[in-house]
């Protein structure tokens, strides 16, 4: 078995790569060896910014002998294609969400990786942050009694005002359901277990949008998926949840997650963050802050957990199976939007173990 820090390579030098590379280069247990992009000049600029030795096209990562984990930060429509190429190269793969755009391609990726004996992981890894991990401990300890229901809300005017190239966020594989939904749905699967059935209603406020900042400001693009989705879910355990995911509201509200049990309601931190405040209210009581936790690390935490799991020969937590189940849930919601009926979710998943309370991303452990 190999020892020492785990070699990592990044494919995709877009906006999200900054926070990943910043964090990955700070973890003693991983080493970033290479960055690749279809635009080699973008990979070069990022490599020079962060002191990464090797850069170029995707092959600069796939062919690097010291890269064990490929961090796939490409656009959603390319996630499975890039992941399959990495699997073919004998690499483990961590992908940004969503894991896939449909059930079949996700299932093919899972089967191909299993045959190759490599691991798959996928964002979001925010559920590994101390915010949601602390909330899970409180619920498992019984602080709200038996969990019964969940309520979540995320609404905004949409990312086109600030994102320099937002068209893909309003097209297949994105929209508020596929872009933001994974954070909220993954958090709830950690608490309630797998989803059994869903129903959804979707709408689109306007057929085109305009980029508001950056070099493409003023450019119009088409909106091809619902920009507002309301959904309900029934979990295999019997609990239920209600959700709104919207890019249509001028009133921005996000990070709203409440879990109600037989004894109390718990307000969780924003599932798109790693830290935050946790509040609890009991019957005939008032809201009280029960925890306010700070994150030791952010995006890239799941890559680090995977790296440590590889060295320790144990399961990692943000698995491809978990991400595939969330994709199955979102595809089922989309089918319900089209059909107007409840849709059964055919996949299932085991809830990963909670992180140890002393888990420290800054420690050298391998």
Automatic annotation (TrEMBL):
Residues 7-121 form the Gfo/Idh/MocA-like oxidoreductase N-terminal domain. The keyword Cell division does not apply. Keywords: Oxidoreductase. Residues 133-266 form the GFO/IDH/MocA-like oxidoreductase domain. Pfam families: GFO_IDH_MocA, GFO_IDH_MocA_C3. The keyword Membrane does not apply. This is Gfo/Idh/MocA family protein. It comes from Kribbella deserti. The lineage of its organism: Bacteria, Bacillati, Actinomycetota, Actinomycetes, Propionibacteriales.
